[in-house]
Amino acid sequence: MKIGIIYYTHGGHTQEMAEQIAEGIKSKDIEVRLFSLDDQLDDNYLNDCVGIIFGTPTYVATSHWRVVEWLTSNKSVKLGGKLGGCFATAHYAQGGSDSAIMSIVGVLLTKGMLVYSGGAALGKPFIHHGPVALDAEGTHYEEAKKMFTIFGERFANKALELF
Amino acid sequence: MKIGIIYYTHGGHTQEMAEQIAEGIKSKDIEVRLFSLDDQLDDNYLNDCVGIIFGTPTYVATSHWRVVEWLTSNKSVKLGGKLGGCFATAHYAQGGSDSAIMSIVGVLLTKGMLVYSGGAALGKPFIHHGPVALDAEGTHYEEAKKMFTIFGERFANKALELF
Amino acid sequence: MKIGIIYYTHGGHTQEMAEQIAEGIKSKDIEVRLFSLDDQLDDNYLNDCVGIIFGTPTYVATSHWRVVEWLTSNKSVKLGGKLGGCFATAHYAQGGSDSAIMSIVGVLLTKGMLVYSGGAALGKPFIHHGPVALDAEGTHYEEAKKMFTIFGERFANKALELF
Amino acid sequence: MKIGIIYYTHGGHTQEMAEQIAEGIKSKDIEVRLFSLDDQLDDNYLNDCVGIIFGTPTYVATSHWRVVEWLTSNKSVKLGGKLGGCFATAHYAQGGSDSAIMSIVGVLLTKGMLVYSGGAALGKPFIHHGPVALDAEGTHYEEAKKMFTIFGERFANKALELF
């Protein structure tokens, strides 16, 4: 079973959190590969995936346009029917990170994905729309890493259960 | 296999579209029951459901507060892990029906549901966030009925496939 | 010149942040009154206001339904043409506070308000959609208080400039 | 007094609706210029504007990434304090046009704009988040043109009133 993580990163934070999620997925014995939108994607691998997670930095209180650009233009990776998830990094609590996540959730629905975050149904940490890490709010960024790994575990568990 | 539809209706349009969806679900030999938020819900039935669809009229360009009230207050129906979907009725194209749907999608994610619309992945009719019927735009309301039934079929097919 | 703050509070945090905003408004010599949705509102006062700010706790990753209920039902307070703003309290960074704010922003637009946050245009603190205070993320809640006061000052300055 | 309209168009519909809005603005004796994101923008003109309206086609149920790209990258046009508005074109009622508009509204707030649609406060046609034209729903596209002109008039009136 395979899962992919597609992200855009500018300063490296979104990539680092993608790696945290990957740790959680690997711990469930699922293969996972990370794809930066600055590199060539492996369409064959992504088509084989049962789930794809999208990561974005928060710019102007929404997702980075590079993520939406890929989701708009992509014709070669079939997303319909796969499990979909989202995460975001941001500077501040009021920075718009869940608006960023929800802007991608709407697209994933349009692509026919089963969108899943685990929400508050799996106990703490509650991960409402998707995990968020804030790099300018005290030690939030470092402390959030564990939540991203747990998100990876939960997403992987759901994939194992469904597919 | 059971599916539930929970809706708030004021003038009856949202209920009528719930019935259209139910037709589609029944055509796949899945049991379906409709619950108006003005009546007593059957928690046992809803807990047995593999999927729940939420319907709302569009008021002030968002979902009706009665739907969010139920989603906020409900402790007895477990939503986590179930398939979730949304639909809306509205007067006008610019009335905010997708915003209404997305306002519920965000809550369903928080509740741990697998949110699904079929999107554009299943061909026409494309149902991006969920089906919409407009009662003050020419004949849209009557013509949209078929799309609601198709949404029910697609939602039912996905439930059969997953559970 | 008068400004009003309408909020729903459950545990008191949203009220406390409303008071912080009021401090900022008063510092610009504008009259300000706070209205909890649990109390009787003063429609005459609110109709005299040049701006109204709405505050909500974040529940299930959106605004509390009591705020939307009031915005849906209210016929006696004319909102059109007034300056509008929003703020939210939440527990966690990933709790949906911006989604809560944006869910109200959409309604305020529908009511014909001029929606304003100051954004990043006025320098730090950047207040994207509106100020947010998180009570379960370290010391964020206490530290955020100053941002709420600054939001009040900026909102008041804009009101003085426009009206 | 000057107003600008910035839009991205693929097949020409968004441009055509921008022109409809411009008619409404011109009828109030305000200068208006249209800028396609495929062309060079006139930063001096835009900086002189008291208001800027953004137009987008709806792709994957959100705004086109080209609009968000410009809003993310632009450093030379100062948006803070200006009146801001949005409109969208889409194929279908369930296509996500108000999600598209709201995705831009969130950015305009972050840029410090006064976001305004007129809403339902000015009587019919009610223009909730911004005007919408659907080209695959009967005759909606042609019939919507008048609403776009009215939106231009309302936006212009508000600019005259405020600045």
Task: Kindly state the percentage of residues in helix of chain A.
Answer: 40-55%
Largest sheet of chain A: 7 strands, mixed
Rounded mean pLDDT of chain A is 98
Tell me the name of the CATH class of chain A.
Alpha Beta
CATH superfamily of chain A: Flavodoxin domain
Total domain modules of chain A: 1
The whole-angstrom Rg of chain A is 14 Å
CATH architecture name of chain A: 3-Layer(aba) Sandwich
The most extensive contact between chains is: A-B, 29 and 29 residues
Oligomer: homotetramer
- Write down the secondary-structure element order of chain A: EHEHEEHEHEEH
Overall outline of chain A? globular
In the predicted model, the low-confidence regions of chain A spanning at least 5 consecutive residues are none
CATH topology (level 3) name of chain A: Rossmann fold
Spatial separation of the terminal alpha carbons of chain A: 9 Å
Q: List the total number of helices of chain A.
A: 5
* Secondary structural class of chain A: alpha/beta
Give me a quick take on this structure:
4 copies of one chain form a homotetramer. Chain A is α/β, with parallel strands linked by helices. The first copy, chain A, has one domain (2-162): 3-Layer(aba) Sandwich (Rossmann fold).
